[in-house]
Amino acid sequence: MSTLTASPTRGSLGRTTKAEWIKLSSIRSTWWTALAMVVVGAGFTTIICGVYANDIAAGSGDSQGEFITQGLIFSQISAVVIGALVVTSEYGTGLIRSTLAATPLRARVLAAKAIVLSGFLFVVGTATAFIGYFGGNAFFRHDGVGISLGDEHILRSMFGAGLYMAGLGLLAAAVGLLVRHTAAAISIVLALVFIIGQVVQLIPGTFGEWVMKLMPGNAGPGIVVPVSFGPDMLSPWTGFAVFVGEIALLGLAGFALFQKRDA
Amino acid sequence: MTITHTPGVGIRARRLTKRFGDKVAVDGIDFTVEPGRVTGFLGPNGAGKSTTMRMILGLDAPTAGSVRVNGHRYGSSPAPLREIGALLEAHAVHPGRSARDHLRWLAASNGIPTTRVGEVLELVGLESVAGQRAGRFSLGMGQRLGIAAALIGDPPIVMFDEPVNGLDPEGVRWVRSLARRLADEGKTVFVSSHLMSEMALMADHLIVIGRGSILADSSIQAFMAEHASAYVRVKAPQSTDVEALLVGRGLNVTRTDGELRVQGLDAAALGELIGGNGLLLHELTLVRSSLEDAFMELTADSVEYHARSEVAA
Which residue of A37, A236, B51, B94 pairs with A222 in a disulfide if CB–CB is 3.0 to 4.6 A? Predict the structure, then answer.
């Protein structure tokens, strides 16, 4: 058997990150889910813009910015799936034991996963927003109401889409650390974003209003839309800061359990 | 066999304990796994073998006690796969990832050159299916991939948890010779199994565990000498005269159910001795109690689940 010639060097986050990237990119489902994010997100944006372009041109009073990132609502599902799987697929298969045997420093494993996951989702999310923009704006232009990337808030919402998708993936990964089960993690986060975030509107009074505003699926996506969902919502960056805070809290809880539990 | 102990090399457990709730899985065990030989870790299912191995790798935290790998706690090394390689029972591979990609990320995580991936694939005989998803692998191929993963860092210590499970006879022989070769290279080889017969063929040294406690820790020869006995069963009509004759020759004779069990002389010599003294013989049989029997006897009290017939017997 050959002897390894390279001398052992210090362990580093770089190596672990490279290993995590090989893991994420060598699974076919990652690419299918990312493709679904792009096709569904950009596709729906284009269709919605196509449907409303005529009305806007006719002076309906709606703004193009309300529609230009609309399809990304559906892209959230892909981000949640990829985020949860980065953690839960390791528990489902027993791979987590190989991972921790190779990199016993658990904090480094999580840091590497977070870097790879958020970087990947930022790129795919931003690409989805841009493709949707070009698709949707083609209809706006056709009807003489085209917009430009230089218009107010448009670029912020393009890159904001990437940031939000990255955050959503991290949120799902954090929940994955807590429950260690794929279906459970995905269901919880999707329910939180799509159902609970809406249901809490039923809570009466100012309290209900605040709960609604602060739900991750309501606070986070403010930076994705050039024109706000409504006056009840937090401003884009305030909302995103709240969203990041929520991710950090769940992430810390997940990390604490991950440190403590046997693999 | 002389035991040459080099301090700080191999695996060393001291008062190692693991409790799950009020169930004691590993009960304050002490053992040392030395380099240059194959150490078998033998015990029935549920005896605590896998839990011990997980603690060695730092995957499970000991409730009490400690275990050292090459003199330090696992995980303090920057490249642990270069220190110890392990095949774990549940072969920890994502079914959607190819064998090559599985080894690639392992190599990357410990700064091991990618060329090593091809080397270990060849070593375990998986080159031709390296691009296939591991989920399609048979149990035996999965074991081979797990062994490739264990060897990726060419570590001085290898640990195989039940490596022959699911392997065909050719694969079993291959694992045996691999373990032998690694030990001959001076590596520390620690192999678990619940099969005594397998350990008898593979191991130089044996650590027997049952219900979380060490039942035996000795060289395989010493274990055999102590636990596996051979005797000659003698049935003779004038059994009292035969007994007197044999005892008179200084042989170890025990009488059970009208038959004599004789140790110290082989069957042919016994036959000549008894016949030569004009005594009749009805039966003369060499009986060897196997290592399997010895193991069953040793662990009888520590098996968690008996089949009903076994309990009755």
Answer: A236
Cα separations in angstroms, A32 against A27, A78, A170, A233: 9, 9, 19, 33
**ipTM score here?**
0.90
> Are A9 and B92 a contacting pair at CB < 8 A?
no
Which residue from B94, B98, B123 is facing A95, i.e. has the nearest CB?
Answer: B94
What letters, b where the CB count within 10 A reaches 16 and e where it falls short, cover A17-49?
bbbbbbbbebbeebeebbebbbbbbbbbbbbbb
End-to-end CA distance of chain B: 37
User: What are the percentages of helix, strand and coil residues in chain A, rounded to 5?
Assistant: 80, 0, 20
Name the β-bridge partners of B190: B39, B159
What type of residue is A191? Answer: A
- Count H helices, E strands: chain A? 11, 0
| Cβ neighbours of B151 in A, within 8 Å | 1
Contacts of A96 in chain B (CB under 8 A): 92
Min Cα separation A71/chain B (Å): 30
pLDDT tens per residue, range A38-56 = 999 999 999 999 999 999 9
Please give the pLDDT value at position A3. 43
Q: Which residues of B touch A13 (CB under 8 A)?
A: none
Q: How far apart are the first and last CA of chain A?
A: 31
Coil, strand or helix at B215: strand
Pair of tokens at residue A149: 């990337």
d(CA B120, CA B107): 11
